[in-house]
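Reproducibility note. Readers wishing to regenerate the assembly model reported in the main text can use the exact inputs given here. Chain order matters: entities are listed in the order in which they were concatenated for prediction.
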Amino acid sequence: MNWSVRIGSLVMPNPVTVASGTFGYGVEYARLLDLNQLGAVVVKGIRLEPVRGNPTPRTVEVACGLINAIGLQGPGVDGFIEKYWPFLKTLQVPVIINIWGCTVDEYAEVARRFDALEGVGGLELNVSCPNIKEGGAHFGTDVRLLEKVVAACRKATRLPLITKLSPNVPSIVPFAQAAEAAGSDGLSIMNSFPAMAIDIETRRPRLANITGGLTGPCIKPIAVKLVWEAARAVKIPIIGMGGIQSAEDALEFIIAGASAVAVGTANFYEPQTSLHVLQGIREYMQRHGIEDLKSLVGAVKLPRV
Amino acid sequence: MVEQDVIILANENFTGQYHRLVLQADRIAPQAQPGQFVHLRIPLLREALLRRPFSIYQVKDQTLSVLYKTVGKGTHQLARLKPGQMMNAIGPLGHGFTVPASPQIRPLLVAGGYGMAALYLLAERAPRAGVVFVGGRKQGDILCEAEFRALGWEVRAATEDGSYGRRGLVTLPLREELERDASGVRLYACGPTPMLKAVSALAHEFNVEAELSMDEHMCCGVGVCLTCVIPVRTSEGWEYQRTCTEGPVFTANSIAWEVMA
Ligand SMILES: Cc1cc2nc3c(=O)[nH]c(=O)nc-3n(C[C@H](O)[C@H](O)[C@H](O)COP(=O)(O)OP(=O)(O)OC[C@H]3O[C@@H](n4cnc5c(N)ncnc54)[C@H](O)[C@@H]3O)c2cc1C
Ligand SMILES: Cc1cc2nc3c(=O)[nH]c(=O)nc-3n(C[C@H](O)[C@H](O)[C@H](O)COP(=O)(O)O)c2cc1C
Ligand code: FES
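Running the prediction on these inputs yields the following structure tokens for the assembly.
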């Protein structure tokens, strides 16, 4: 049975990873599950300098989902390397570092810094965080800017690049194609969807940031559709994510066209989800006599027209 | 910190709106320290995904209990669960209170709401008994008085409507005690944020140490999501730290109150 996934020179031993920002820096969950059973570990978004993040409340639970406006709190490149890399570099599975910046130059600089760090598995470019006022969002919603960021990072590093796309666009196809053309080795689809919740008693927004990004099971059908559309438009592999709670959810993404999947919000309430998903995919492959998971990627049967 | 399925041994009304939940949690209970909490996945909670955090009230061998108030969908569903049912728990979580190292320290506890539950283990494990100041809006909000007295602690209650104990805020009798004698005192508090802020101010005024257990909304409970942060002083100013991991207990003078809304 083969279920390894190749993204550029990055090889994931299996197709299940975790979504950036929902798994800290790996070390926090290491006491609850064996990280070396995952296909890769993806860490919380890092920019060049430390980031304080947004005031609280930062998250709010909604029907079958969560809205968050964390504001990309993080230790910056140096803080990350000092505090978290000593643990992460001991993992046997690839570590993917999610990076972001407020300018094209900053993205490239962060990419360069991680290029110089021994043992990094790959970089995921977060061009689509909705919770940062200065930067982030417009890179994910402007095709030309997206192309620039990816091209600049491509020049800055030999590491595999995975561009993480925003769902907040009229069509994901040009963005997927632009990332591919600019040298991205893979795509992550999708980031959170802009959203809002209001406390009707106080009439105040439930988040200090007023709006945030919606994630969790309620966004899954949107994400499946975006993966399906992008998969038909590009050749590079896609990591599908958005509301995955079970192997069935993950298989839907794979059949839609994702080569790998990431578990996000579900980690918060069931930390073992990623391992259960992995086990369920194995059982499905056995039950359906699937030798190589690649044969299932994009295998959706469409009605003839 | 472990994740385990736990069995409900009891789940009954305690006082007023509070219920007592007793769990068979052989891997969590023996590790529990005063001020730590458990993160419970409440079964059959439709549409609401997240776990709910509750302070560990009592532990006995392999069981632990919590006292919870029914306030929203999670706690209302929790109150419907029956002995024998299972649920999933992660715990013990967080950085709790420092148990006084010697009987030289005179512990004064300050509680509001479920704060009494959060402080119970500390009272039980302290090398000497002290006084617990407990406040609430009305008599029904005062929890565990008998339990603290059974440990040999003195309980001084205050209610805002005067229906029980002194009329007014709990910080009133606390101030009187500090004015009487603040030597060797260490304060430990858990309750609503305005109460904690007032305790912090008293600690500063009387130059005594205080440890406060902060109640912030949580999501993961284990330090990955960065939902639960409060501003904490650093050499360069302040930074957000996680209530679920660096806290819930912080020293009063480490909190950057001026930054908090
Ligand atoms: C460290 C810690 C210890 C706690 N210990 C206790 C305890 O011992 N006894 C007790 O009765 N309560 C305790 N609480 C508060 C308890 O977690 C909330 O009352 C509970 O989460 C409410 O859930 P709900 O679904 O009924 O309310 P809803 O309002 O429906 O919940 C909606 C969301 O808001 C969150 N939320 C609501 N109120 C609070 C609150 N006060 N604090 C944090 N999150 C909240 C919920 O977790 C949920 O994510 C504690 C909170 C923290 C942070
Ligand atoms: C609390 C939180 C923080 C997140 N932080 C990041 C981040 O730092 N970088 C990023 O690219 N995506 C971030 N995301 C988005 C997730 O990686 C993922 O794309 C999204 O949550 C959809 O998957 P899910 O529905 O399974 O959670 C975050 C999501 C959540 C809920
Ligand atoms: S609740 Fe997630 S970091 Fe504290």
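We highlight two features of this model. Chain A touches chain B at residues 21-24, 28-29, 31-32, 44, 52-53, 55-59, 61, 63-66, 68, 70, 73, 208, 216-217, 265, 267-272 (CB under 8 Å). Chain A is about 30% helix and 20% strand.
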